[in-house]
Amino acid sequence: MSAQAAKFKIQIRKGDQVKVMAGKSAGKTGRVLSVNPLKNTVIVEHAHIIKRHTRPNPNKNVKGGIVEKEGPINASNVMIVCSSCGKHTRIGHTVLADGKKVRSCRRCGTTLDK
Ligand SMILES: [Zn+2]
Predict the structure, then answer these.
(1) Does residue 114 carry a pLDDT above 90?
(2) Which of 32, 37, 33, 7 is nearest to 18 (CA)?
(3) Both 28 and 48 in a single domain?
(4) If you count DSSP H runs as helices and E runs as strands, how many of each does the chain have, helices first?
(5) Which of the residues 25, 48, 87, 96 has an alpha carbon 20 to 30 A from that of 69?
(6) Is 95:103 a contact under the CB 8 Å cutoff?
(7) Does pLDDT of 4 surpass 90?
(8) Cβ-contact 69, 49 below 8 angstroms
(9) How far apart are CA 18 and CA 29, in angstroms?
(10) Contact 62, 53 (CB under 8 A)
């Protein structure tokens, strides 16, 4: 038996356009850069900018100082933005004729997966 950490079910995927619903970046939209199912967080481009104090590391060619970068946002605080109706929406599921399950917009029904 291998101990496996519980994973959160995140319906947001890398590359999705999302809107931040809560926190200091509320109202911002951006592309999802990464998803962390173990922590239930996502990183959204240009949202929730945090300051990182870094030490110089010449081996990795990293300069010291303060670096501003995107911080993790709880996945429940972001909603996907539908490319068809242009609004943030809950994610529904549609089963296609070939049996494939895809994510869909709960507002207009458009498939969110390509
Ligand atoms: Zn829609």
Answers:
(1) no
(2) 32
(3) yes
(4) 0, 10
(5) 87
(6) no
(7) no
(8) yes
(9) 5
(10) no
CA gap 49, 73 in Å, rounded: 10
Cβ-proximal residues to 95 (8 Å cutoff; 6+ apart), any chain: 101, 102
Same domain flag for 5 and 54: yes
The rounded Å distance from CA 112 to ligand 1 centre is 8
User: Same domain for 21 and 62?
Assistant: yes
Report the distance separating Cα 40 and Cα 68, nearest Å: 22
Q: How far is the CA of 114 from the centre of ligand 1 (A)?
A: 14
* Ligand 1 centroid to residue 104 C-alpha, Å: 8
The residue range of the domain holding 19 is 1-81
How far away, in angstroms, is 102 Cα from ligand 1 center? 14
Q: Which two tokens stand for residue 28?
A: 């911002």
Asked if 62 and 11 sit in the same domain, the reply is yes
Instruction: Give pLDDT tens digits for 5-42.
Output: 788 999 999 999 999 999 989 999 999 999 999 999 99
pLDDT tens string 48-98: 999 989 889 899 888 889 989 999 999 999 999 999 999 999 999 999 999
